[in-house]
Every structure is written in structure tokens, then in C-alpha cells.
Design a protein that fits this description.
It contains 16 helices and no strands. It is an all-alpha fold. Helix 13 runs antiparallel to helix 14. It is globular. The two termini are 32 Å apart. It is a multi-pass membrane protein. Pfam families: MFS_1. Keywords: Membrane, Transmembrane, Transmembrane helix, Transport.
Amino acid sequence: MQTTLATRNTNRPLALATLCGAVLVAQLDTSVVNLATHPIGAYFKADVATLQWVVDAYNLVYAALLLTGGLIADLYGRRRVFIAGILVFTLASLLCAAAPDMPILIGGRALAGVGAALMIPASLSLIRVIWPDPAMRGHALGIWAACNGLSFVIGPTLGGVLIGWFGWRSIFLVVIPVGIATMALAFRALAESADRGDRAFDAAGQILGALGLGGAVFAAIMADGNAHAALIALAAACIAIVWFVVAERRRGAEALVPLGLFRIPAFRGAMLATMAMTFGMYGVLFLQPLVWQSTGGLGPIGAGLALMPMALVFVLVSPWSGALSHKVGTRFMTSGGVAIIGCGLLALAATAGLRQAGFAEIGLVLTGLGMGLATGPLLGVAVGAVPAARSGTAASLINVARMAGATMGVALLGAVFAALHGDTEGLRGAMLLGGLVQLGGAAIASRRGQG
């Protein structure tokens, strides 16, 4: 089955609406869960380290299984895997809503990560196949990326209202109607496509990759509370990553991750910039609402409304990112966008402790602007730099970079926050580190080149 089948008799507007529905399902969940960490912690009497796992269980499993999700989509059918991912994600949301304790809630979040790891790479891969023309694909990716921002407009506001009126369990129920509608549209709007070639499932690569990422994230989370366990996990992660690279090199073209992709300068630059971008953004989404609520400055609804300007800027800018990238250059858009996010985090560090939440909006608006400028072009670089037959793999890798950055951002910036005893000083230190990491990532990505 070849990729060209996906473009025959395809209603592209309906297909794009379907693929965007998957983004809304995943990102609605992420945005409302970040807002709900405080009430979840109060309900289960959980500390910050445990609450990090409510966020990171999803991020970690999602990132660890993305490679497998993309390969399965290429091998066995992108539409089939896309629909399966939505189904798993929807069932996981039901489990989270009914969770009687923290272990089951965290387990449900991990299962949601499995669903996201199947549907998001398949979604991006289908965009690469359905829109073969780079200019048209750039426009589609801009709209797809804008749905990330739209979810952050809808999610915090809706989530705040739901938490205030019905409790935190209701936030997991809100994604279910979207998931059901997206599955129904997928059967009608998407044609099946696959590119098996000479590739096969790489179990060893998947296991080693998951161990490497999982060990690194676990080490970051445990660094403040259990240094001994953190060092053991970090050592295990390093061994797994080295073994992973050796194993993938031996498999050559059949590898889970073809190492030749990283010899493409544009692809390398996109990976670096994406990791830096999400490192800071997800740290903001985890810590800023937590501080607002824990200090008594804002409740769930107020925190959701305060996050809205960042999301609105993201939504307004993203659809135009493809056209802007064509005019001013991809390197300027991607590296510049990540640098703007870094400036936003530094502004949040500078305004931490000020009583009025309005001062933080400067940093949040800059963060949203940078995300809107950079997200679509970065995705376009990643999936456009490889043949269509490898689109699932490329989509997986750029999402591995995105979620690895997000997971490490929540873990490391959360650890800094806790080490500085939380609240104002913790937020200031975490945002300062996040901003500097992003500025450094933008500089490195610019030197590597992205076209």
C-alpha cells in the first residue's frame, strides 16, 4: 500500500478538521491537567513530586512510545493507527475520571500517553502524505499547530469552570465527546496509506529508547529528593542510550530510528529548537498556575482566564506562520520564535512575586507569540526533510523532541522550584533557568541551520 492512496478522492478540509481534532483531544487534556494539579493534590494529599507524575506519566510514556507509534503507522496503516490512538486515549480519560487513588490516576495518565503516541505521529504523517506540496503543507501545518493554541484557550477556561463547579474529575470527561467525534470523522474523511518497504518492527530499539528516556526523566524528578536513586537512573539511561545508538547503527535502513536522518542539518536544527521550545513552555504551564493557586492569588477559574492571552496569541499567529516562514526564512522563524519564548520566561522570572497577575501577562504573551511563530515551521522542516515513506518516523522523532523537552522541563524546572521552597523564589529560579536554556537552544539551532 503506497502513500499516494491517501491523496485520492480526499476531502482535504474535512481531513484537516479530523486531524486537528486529534490535537484538540491531546492538548485539551494536557492544558486542563496542568490547571488541576492543585485541586488533585489537595484531594489526594499529594506532594509536588507526586503531582509531577500526574503530568510526567503522560509525557514520559508518550515520548517513549512515539517512535513505535510512527513506525507502526508507516508499516500497518496511518488511518488505522490514528483511530486506534484516539480510542485508547478516550478510554484512558474515562479511567482517570473514575480513579480512586493516585496510582490509578497516574496509570490512566500513562495509558493516555499510549494513545497520544499512536494518534499524533499518524496525524502528522497523514498531513505529509495528503499535502505533498510544501507551501500547501505549510498552511495545513500552521492550522494544525494553531489547534494547540486553541486548546489552551478552551482548556484552561473550560477546565477552570468545570473544576470550580463539578470538581477535578470532570476535566477528564470533557475530552471524550471530542474523541468520539474525531473517530467518526476519521472513518469518512481519511484514506488508508502505508509504506512497509523492507522495514520491520524494531523491538530492541524501542526497549532501549524507552529505557534511556525513562531513566533520564526519572533521574531529573528524583534529583532533589533522592540523589542516590537519581544517579543510578542517570547511569542506566546513559548506558541504554549508547546501546540504542549502537543497535540502530547495526540495523541500518531497518532501524527504528535511521541515524542517517540526523545527518540532515535542517532536521537536526528542528529537533534542537523543538526541545528547547517545549522545555520552557510546559514548565510555565505546570508551575505558573500552581503558584497562582497555592499563594491564594487566583482560583482555578481565575488561573484559567489568566492563561488565555498566551493561548490567544498562539492561535492568532500560528495559521500565518507558514506564509511568514516563506517570506523571511525558516531559520529566522524557528530560532527567533524559540528566542522570544526564552524572553517570555525571563519576563516571568522578573515579575515573579508581584501581587497583580497582570505583570506576568507580558511573559505569557511573549511565550505564546514565540510558540505561534515557531511550531508550524518546525514541524514542516521535520516532515519535509525526509521522503514521504519515512513521514511517520520523522513525525515521531520531532514529537519525541517536543515531548522530551516538555517532560524534562516539568521535571527539571519542577525540581528547581521545589529546591527553592516553591512559591515566588521557586518560580523565579525555574523561569530563569528555563529562559536561559531556550535562548541557548535557539542559538545552537540557528548555527545548525534549518533552511
